[in-house]
Amino acid sequence: MLLGQTNFANTLAVRKDYGPYTSLRRGLSVTNVYDPGNDYRICSNCGKMRRASSFWRDAMRCRKCVAKETGKERSRHAKVWKASAKEQYGLKITVTENKFRQIKDAAFQKANVSVPKTGRDELARNVGYCSAILLAAFLISLLILPWLYMTDVKVNMLLMFGGILAGPAGGVLHAICTNLERPRLEAVRTLTEKLLREGLKQYEVEQLEYLKFYMTPEWRSLRATTIRRKGKTCNRCGMKIRTPKDVTVDHILPRSVYPDRALDPKNLQVLCRSCNSAKGARMETESDVEI
């Protein structure tokens, strides 16, 4: 029997008796009649009957269950990572992984420019070129060894021994290059760590200053007034927001760009938390602001 596949008559009965979704726990009996135009499956995770388009190919769980599980795993990973970074760098606020990577990349670029290159580093670069050439010659010799016996014997021996010696010589030069570069790399790494900590502290100060605004009585009063006047319906997706913690008041024109309109009632809109997170600090047109 094909699990979860039912004919059109049974599907109508299912919809009439139980609504659009039906669980195996309700005792639904499915048949082995397959209609390609009316393909339904039962999710192995939630037990609900859904259309075949709601499943990934040959999957036992519906897309909704897969997305929910993936979202939980990502949230768990993000929470652990934020707590670890906060403890390691002694921060008062949490920082996202993407923001941390941006600050670290900027610190590395600055450190790489700040640490000057010496003659030792130039020598290391030339040695690295030689090492790469010898290793490439060694690999090429391995590839053409089966064809060497088609030419002169002396040429065969010369190419064979040259290729064999190129490998160890390239390895030795690579080790020398690494040893020559080590002092500068250590200096860059140390300076990068120092600049990273300074960048994180600067970000912390900026965020604390930014969040102070949301603790002021003026904003709290204006937020409550906006929710009372516009209701608890998301202005973007149109969904009714039922959970109090998901009700957010958003600045249509970002406060970071228009600080003078931070307390302007016409520049505020009610959004659910997911829509507010998706919008972020992106600009919206002036026409979206009430006149």
Provide a brief overview of the structure.
The chain has 291 residues and is mostly helical. The chain has helices at 8-18, 63-89, 97-114, 119-144, 153-212, 217-230, 273-279, and strands spanning 40-42, 49-51, 247-251, 268-272.
Principal-axis shape equals: flat
Structural class based on helices, strands and sheet pairing: mainly alpha
Overall number of strands: 4
Question: SSE order in H/E notation?
Answer: HEEHHHHHEEH
What is the rounded distance between the termini? Answer: 63 Å
Question: Which residue ranges are poorly predicted, with pLDDT under 50 across at least 5 consecutive positions?
Answer: 1-37
The profile of the biggest β sheet is: 2 strands, antiparallel
> Biggest sheet: strands side by side, in what order?
1-2
**How much of the residues is beta strand, in percent?**
5-15%
* Helix percent band: 55-70%
Put simply, the count of helices is 7
Describe the structure.
- 56% of the residues lie in helices and 5% in strands.
- It is mainly α and 291 residues long.
- The protein has 3 domains: 8-63, no CATH class; 98-213, no CATH class; 216-288, no CATH class.
- Strands 1-2 form a two-stranded antiparallel sheet.
- A hairpin with a 6-residue loop joins strand 1 and strand 2 (49-51).
- Helix 4 crosses helix 5.
- Mean pLDDT is 77; it is low at 1-37.
